[in-house]
Amino acid sequence: MSRDYANRKPTKRTPRSKKKQAPSSRLPIIPLLIATIGIGGFGYFLWNIKDSAETTQPVSKPVKTKPKPKNELPPKPQDKWSYQDILENKEVQVDVPKKEPQPNRSYQMQCGSFRSEAQAESMRAKIAFQGLSSNVRRTEGKNGVWYRVYLGPYDRKRAAERERHKLQAISINTCIILLKKDN
């Protein structure tokens, strides 16, 4: 059962009859009487307790103060430890190993290894658009011929990581940083 509220005709309502009350001529005598008695009782209570409080003065004893002499410090305590005298003249010997010069390391970054040279050149072109130079090396192994895309060499690993983050920004996430082999 559905109702059509849009085309519904309003119903006539009969007004309710409100009974008007006649204004009362009586003053609120009872609440005024209670308030007057309450205020009077409270005043009487305060009048009675003002004289009932004991007025006792606290007895204070005279305080005797000794005059302090100015700039007088207590005597210096005696040292009861002997390590202070021993450590004053103690010399510590430390063996420092000599650092061996590390070989000059250089790093390179490999970003792809492909079977076809066209795929490797496509990767190299994407890298070139980022302003980085790369090269494609052909390697032969047990599995056949591979074309690898290399960047570098880098003197420090941090420089290689910086360029890897540039490539990750354009969704080239396959780059790995390797120590360069001396060939």
Explain this structure.
Strand 2 (135-141) and strand 3 form a beta hairpin. This protein has a domain at 107-179: Alpha-Beta Plaits (2-Layer Sandwich), CATH 3.30.70.1070. It has 4 helices and 4 strands; from the N terminus they run H-H-E-H-E-E-H-E. The protein starts with 28 loop residues before the first helix and ends with a strand. The chain is an alpha+beta fold and 183 residues long. It has a 4-stranded antiparallel sheet, with helices on one face. The longest helix has 24 residues, at 29-52.
Question: What attributes characterize this protein structure?
Answer:
183 residues; alpha+beta; Alpha-Beta Plaits; 4 helices; peptidoglycan binding; Sporulation protein; SPOR-like_sf; Cell_div_SPOR-domain; transmembrane helix
Question: Gist?
Answer:
The protein has helices at 29-52, 83-88, 117-128, 157-168; strands at residues 107-114, 135-141, 144-154, 176-179. The protein has 183 residues and is an alpha+beta fold.
